[in-house]
Amino acid sequence: MSDDNKLVVERKKKLDELSKLSQLYPNTFKRNKSTQELRKKFGEKSKEDLEFEKDTYALCGRLLTIRKMGNSTFANLHDESGKLQLFLSKNSTGIDTYKLLNHTDLGDIVGVKGTIFKTKTGELSLNVSEYIILSKSLRPLPEKFHGLSDVEIKYRQRYVDLMTSEESRKVFTDRIKIVSHIRKYFENENYLEVETPMMHPIAGGAAAKPFITHHNSLDMNLFLRIAPELYLKRLIIGGFEKVFEINRSFRNEGLSVKHNPEFTMIEFYAAYEDYNYLMAVIEKLIKSLIKALNLDEKFNYQDYKIATDKPFEKLNFHDSIVKYCDGIDEKNINDYSTLEKYCKTNNIEITIKESLAKTQLDIFEKIVEGNLINPTFITEYPTAVSPLSRRFDSNPEVVERFELFIAGREIANGFSELNDPRDQAQRFSEQLEKDDEQMNYDEDFITAMEYGMPPTAGAGIGIDRLVMLLTNSTSIRDVLFFPLMKPKS
After folding, report:
1. Closest to 301 (Cα-Cα) out of 479, 464, 468, 168
2. Are 96 and 85 in contact (CB under 8 A)?
3. Are 463 and 246 in contact (CB under 8 A)?
4. Could you tell me which of 434, 470, 433 has the C-alpha nearest to residue 361?
5. Which residues pair with 72 in a beta bridge?
6. Interior CA angle at 119 toward 116 and 121, to 5°?
7. Staple 45 to which of 49, 111, 130, 250, CB 3.0 to 4.6 Å?
């Protein structure tokens, strides 16, 4: 029997013994304060001032440290808001109640009542007069996380990670703040939050591999949402002029430090605006998030120093390749044979042979992206790799589109929307012929566009990657409560 299994057996015995002394798993204890509220109220008061405090406070939480010293015990009680030291003695609790400590283990959830005081060392504490075990922890807590095997535990048993790691709790508290801030930001910009379907009859809205499911009653296959884009545009066509959705989307692709098959993003659309408007909105949003999280305008992300104190750089797609790829210049960037040789020399896989635009994108993704450390908007993408974007009137070979990169990763993608149904139908058809990872031809969306779609701008922001950046997290799994994991077996 392993040591952990022995401890589980011992704790179960304690639970059996506890049943003779008190009710198991009671739900009658009511707290009236959190640890944070007590720290806020009494933290700055002196030891002498607290000698006159006679009010009784009731707290609930998990015990993560216990130090027995003869006839007295110190313990740390943790709740969602923080922690507070407990002091228990036979004199204050009574002998029978104090005996409950013999059945207490690290991780147990308890309820306590007592008066507030400070120890000789100035530690704010609760002098416990009542003590009850609310829930027994039958499994021992890990001492700490370190090494690969423990990283696995962090992801597989997030509940253990959260109860033992203040750092992890801080990351997820920040994530919650970020999502809340994003929602309020768009509401303050007079956007309406909407909800669109997560099961689609046609895989669309982005070029990616979908998850397929089956509806039994209708006997039809459905696709988990790749992106909400085409449904949000239908709402613009219907007359809503500014909409957003914080959505869960799904792509049946690989796992990596920056990819999870299920992910969170926000998409937002505004009628009568263009892609320049979107870049301004996103830059303002990110700078407001940095301020809300009390980050410096120049902050660290892993080995990078990210500077946001100046306007975000703008660089068009072709110029970015010329800038970062030795051997490619303004004269040969549109020469396929030159690009093919460059790819062979630099071990870049060409995803679609003889496709100039797609090969340029292959080079961009392999070479350029990693050089975009400070916030940079890459603009003016080729039309051939942007099937939903509006062409430039002055140059139909490129579109009014941008992607925002920070720390070498794509954070946002947006464009002036294509609102010509004939052009959209043609591009759907062309993409079906050229690309394995294509959007299917959405006939109903074309029908919707034929009713008239106003000039519109729309963008998507990857919330998971944004949280990674703003919490200095190395992997997307660090910012997802429950990332997808391969089964142990």
Report:
1. 468
2. no
3. yes
4. 434
5. 69, 89
6. 140
7. 49
Tokens representing 345 are 């020399």
Measured N-to-C along each axis, helices 336-345 and 356-363 cross at an angle, to the nearest 10 degrees, of 30
DSSP class per residue in 373-385: -S-EEEE--BGGG
CA 281 to chain CA centroid, nearest Å: 20
pLDDT at res. 429: 84
- The SS3 of residue 323 is helix
Q: In what order do the strands lie in the sheet with 376-379?
A: 192-193, 242-250, 262-271, 456-462, 409-416, 401-406, 376-379, 313-316
pLDDT tier for residue 448 given thresholds of 50, 70 and 90? very high
Q: Which residue would you say has higher pLDDT here, 76 or 253? A: 76
371: which residues sit within 8 A by CB, 6+ positions away?
Answer: 324, 408
Task: Give residue-wise pLDDT tens across range 366-419.
Answer: 999 999 999 999 999 999 999 889 999 999 999 999 999 999 999 999 999 999
Burial 422-457 (b: 16+ CB within 10 A, else e): eebbebbeebeeebeebbeebeebeebbeeebeebb
- Please report, as a single letter, which amino acid is at residue 147: G
Q: What is the pTM of this model?
A: 0.92
User: Which among 425, 325, 316, 424 has a CA at the least distance from the CA of 367?
Assistant: 325
Number of H helices, E strands in the chain: 16, 18
Summarised one tens digit per residue, pLDDT across range 31-47 is 999 999 999 999 999 99
Contact 466, 422 (CB under 8 A): no
Question: With 0-12 CB in 10 A as exposed, 13-18 as middle and 19+ as buried, what is 52?
Answer: exposed
